[in-house]
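Researcher: Sequence recovery benchmark, item below. Answer with residues only.
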């Protein structure tokens, strides 16, 4: 089936290395193609797609050596096929087009598979293998380490949101995953915490455990403080319990979030929970938000801190 071609300026075509499957351009091949063009040889049209980052420009999907050969002999306009990939990964599409006498080397094939999976971890080994001409098992061997890291990252994200009291359906929506996948991951959450709890029981500090396992400190704290009484929790964190008329904190605790103008100190939330809720109360959730307690916090807009006002309305809702 003949594809529709369009003539465009060669200067509007770019080679995007992010979607180019080869490690380098072969100068000898460019020279051969340039000589062929001077002798009147006609090549198949190159394939391009609109560049999403540069309006009016196109990035090469197939024909990098032809493109360089055209430029070498001074061609200013070329015939191309403008493709609409409809969501297909452009790197894998470009790899599919790398056929003929100079196919991708084994190193280039492996690297293409790894780059494609890094760009989109939802790609299956079968889909990647179909594009690069390799079996699913071979692709599995190419990306096994990347998949393990991705899997652990997904487990930690699910674990964190589950500890925050976020329902499974909302976790699935946030992560763009099916709820059954979230359910299956949650079944192994207790195992995920075993190594953390083991290190804590051996006397390692929260910061040491967080650094060792690449967890955030609040996540490790959520395990370290589990099943403790509230007063013991205040002692462990090193805050000290204050009466309601001494609720003034000069700084936010850096262990519990990033600093930004208008941020509510974690100490304030902890004191509200202590004084105005009961331990193990169903409403006393790990992910309890200020507004759930009737706390309305007016934070300023803009880049600079300004005077802040806290309004507390304790209501039954």
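Model:
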């Amino acid at each position: 089936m003949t594809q529709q071609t369009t003539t465009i300026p060669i200067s509007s075509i770019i080679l995007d290395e992010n979607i180019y499957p080869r490690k380098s351009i072969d100068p000898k091949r460019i020279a051969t193609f340039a000589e062929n063009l001077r002798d009147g040889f006609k090549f198949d049209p190159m394939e391009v797609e609109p560049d999403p980052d540069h309006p009016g420009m196109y990035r090469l999907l197939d024909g990098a050596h032809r493109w360089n050969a055209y430029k070498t002999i001074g061609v200013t306009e070329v015939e191309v096929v403008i493709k609409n990939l409809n969501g297909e990964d452009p790197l894998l599409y470009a790899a599919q087009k790398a056929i003929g006498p100079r196919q991708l080397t084994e190193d280039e094939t492996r690297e293409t598979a790894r780059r494609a999976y890094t760009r989109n971890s939802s790609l299956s080994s079968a889909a990647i293998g179909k594009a690069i001409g390799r079996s699913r098992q071979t692709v599995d061997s190419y990306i096994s380490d990347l998949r393990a890291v991705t899997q652990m990252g997904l487990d930690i994200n699910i674990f964190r949101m589950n500890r925050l009291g976020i329902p499974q359906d909302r976790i699935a929506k946030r992560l763009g995953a099916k709820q059954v996948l979230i359910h299956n991951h949650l079944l192994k959450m207790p195992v995920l915490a075993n190594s953390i709890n083991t290190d804590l029981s051996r006397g390692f500090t929260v910061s040491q455990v967080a650094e060792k396992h690449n967890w955030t400190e609040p996540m490790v704290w959520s395990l370290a403080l589990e099943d403790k009484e509230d007063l013991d929790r205040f002692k462990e964190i090193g805050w000290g319990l204050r009466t309601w008329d001494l609720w003034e904190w000069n700084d936010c605790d850096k262990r519990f979030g990033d600093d930004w103008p208008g941020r509510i100190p974690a100490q304030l939330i902890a004191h509200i929970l202590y004084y105005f809720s009961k331990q193990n109360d169903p409403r006393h959730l790990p992910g309890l938000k200020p507004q759930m307690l009737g706390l309305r916090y007016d934070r300023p807009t803009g880049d600079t801190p300004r005077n802040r006002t806290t309004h507390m309305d304790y209501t039954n809702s």
